[in-house]
């Protein structure tokens, strides 16, 4: 599996966790074990250097994770697999950009 394909799997895991809070429920949605889901999410956090999952009683996505999910990057990666390298670079830029103070509530 290429780096880009691995990233897309990891982002899909993040999306599943957002849509179905809790590792077990999100893993079931992805048809993978919760251990595999945890590994994918940890690898995504390590690769980006950004805390994306709140591991409290029921695991949820952090605000930085939500920024990724609402950015449309996942959908673009899925729709444009041939230009995946450009989208990965944009994702890295998104994660290193400071949020606009007007967006913080």
TrEMBL record:
Instruction: Name the domain of life this protein comes from.
Output: Bacteria
**Mind telling me which Gene3D superfamilies this protein's record contains?**
Winged helix-like DNA-binding domain superfamily/Winged helix DNA-binding domain
Tell me which Pfam families the record gives: HTH_1
The residue ranges of the HTH lysR-type domain are: 9-66
- The name on file for this protein is HTH lysR-type domain-containing protein
Please list the coiled coil stretches: none
Q: Which SUPFAM superfamilies match?
A: Winged helix' DNA-binding domain
């Amino acid at each position: 599996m290429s780096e880009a394909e691995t990233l897309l799997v990891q982002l899909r895991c993040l999306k599943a966790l957002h849509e179905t809070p809790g590792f077990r429920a999100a893993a079931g949605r992805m048809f993978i074990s919760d251990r595999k889901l945890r590994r994918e999410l940890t690898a995504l956090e390590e690769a980006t250097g950004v805390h994306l999952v709140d591991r409290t009683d029921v695991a949820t996505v952090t605000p930085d994770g939500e920024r990724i999910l609402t950015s449309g990057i996942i959908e673009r990666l899925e729709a444009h697999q041939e230009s995946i390298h450009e989208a990965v670079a944009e994702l890295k830029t998104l994660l290193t950009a400071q949020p606009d103070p007007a967006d913080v509530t």
